[in-house]
Amino acid sequence: MTEGAEARPTVVPGLLLTAPSGTGFHFDPGALCLELLTTGGPGSHARWEVLHRPDDLAAWLPASRLRLPADAVRITDAQLTAARTLRDTLWRLTAARARGERGAAADYAVLNRAAEHPPLVPRITPDGTAAAPLPADGDQLASTVARDAIALLTGPHADRIRECGAHNCYLIFVDTSRPGRRRWCSMERCGNRNKVRALRARREPEQPE
Questions:
Q1: In terms of CB atoms within 10 Å, which end of the chain has fewer, N or C?
Q2: 72 near 59, Cβ under 8 Å?
Q3: 29 touches 35 (CB < 8 A)
Q4: pTM confidence score
């Protein structure tokens, strides 16, 4: 670093989620497409739905890996519906991959159609920082997420897509660590709860036969 240069703050990837108990925890799923899954989903995941209006999807932008301001992308009602369809599709495809299954052909077709649109265009400012893309819309946002998903599902970490090891947690992540032994969505939440349960089990007196 040259004299007088200032270190830029390190941005930690991932999201701050709130557990049903009300406590917050950090969750890094390891990929942009998996971050979208935290906004709701198909079937039983519908109870966590937060994408009710276009503004709700826009509000996800600053928290996501994109780190875009909420007003960087124009989203219509139809594009919101398409984004939710893509998200539900990604739930099924990534959950299938985590279980060693292939997934449905219809879901791959949805993913491919979403990726056909032009993606968000990255930009840079004179000081070397990322800038908001040129005026963009919800189709471009969906395409960016879809292309990220295709890269994940066809890339070197495809076999490391996993569901959290807790019996009542269904969050999906990709283990990008070198050892490849990640089991929990977050050590703050499920990892810590597992440690507490294991400690209690060791402390319980053995029952007489």
A1: C
A2: no
A3: yes
A4: 0.86
